[in-house]
Amino acid sequence: MKKISVIVFVTSGIVLAACSDVRRDPGTIYMPDMAYSRAYETYAERDSAIFSTNEKRTDDKIFYNNQPVAGTIARGEEIPFSLAKDAAGDTTNYIASKAVTNPLPALNDAQMKEAERQYLINCGICHGAKLDGNGPLYKDGAGPYPAKPATLVGDAKYEAMPEGQMFYSVTYGKNLMGSYASQLNRDQRWAIIHYIKAKQAKNAPAAKPAADSTVSAKK
C-alpha cells in the first residue's frame, strides 16, 4: 500500500510539473524543410514596404508578391489594349493605334451574327443598318441629329482606317462620338470591327484581271 502511494505521489508530481510550463519551442529539428513548408501562406505577415518595392527579404521567410507574370493574360480575361486615351489636343496614341491589329481570330457564322446584332444595337442608330451613315438619328437630314455620321461602307477614308484606330475611337470616343467602353466589352468591340471590315471587304471593287501579254503582242 505504501509503495502504491509513493508511485501515485511521484506520478502526480511529474504531471503537475509537465503542465505548469508548456513548451512551445520544439528545439532542434532534424531536416526542418521536411517539417515546415516554405511555400507561400495565404495569411502570412508581410512587410508592406518590401511588398510594394518587390525587394528581397533578409529574414528566412520566402517572399511572394502575388502578381502575375508581366505580359500574361489570365484565362477568361479580356484582351488588353495597351494605349491610353490621349490628352486633349494630343493625337500620339490615336496615331499609334494604327499599328494595333485585331487580336480576335476570324469570326465564324454564329459569332458574325452576334457581332451584327451588337452593331445594330449600339452603332446602327447613327451609322445605319447598311453602314452608310444614315441611321435613325440622321435619317437623310430629317432626324434629330444634324451632322451626318461617318459612312463606314462607301467612304474610302473609313474603309482604309486600320482596325486598331477604329478600336481606339470606339473605346475612347472620337469627335462627336462618345466612348462605348461601358456598353461593349473589349471582345465585343473587336468583334464589331471584324463585322465592319467584312462589310467593307464585300463593298470593295473586284480586282481587274491582268491583261494577256500574248494578245497584246499580237496587236
Short description:
The longest helix is centred in the first third of the chain and has 19 residues, at 2-20.
Walk me through this protein's architecture.
- Keywords: Heme, Iron, Metal-binding, Signal.
- Residues 1-17 form the signal peptide.
- GO terms for molecular function: electron transfer activity; heme binding; metal ion binding.
- This protein is mainly alpha-helical.
- It has a domain at 92-203: Orthogonal Bundle (Cytochrome Bc1 Complex, Chain D, domain 2), CATH 1.10.760.
- The chain has helices at 2-20, 32-35, 48-53, 92-96, 109-122, 124-127, 156-159, 163-172, 186-203, 213-218.
The name of the CATH architecture of the domain at 92-203 is Orthogonal Bundle
For this structure, the CATH topology of the domain at 92-203 is Cytochrome Bc1 Complex, Chain D, domain 2
SSE arrangement, N to C: HHHHHHHHHH
Derived from helix and strand composition plus strand pairing, the structural class reads mainly alpha
CATH top level label of the domain at 92-203: Mainly Alpha
Superfamily at the CATH H level of the domain at 92-203?
Answer: Cytochrome c-like domain
- For the termini, the CA-CA separation is 139 Å
Major sheet details: none
| Binned strand content | under 5%
Mean pLDDT across the residues is 80
Overall radius of gyration: 35 Å
GO molecular function: electron transfer activity; heme binding; metal ion binding
Protein name: Cytochrome c
Signal peptide: 1-17
Domain Cytochrome c: 110-200
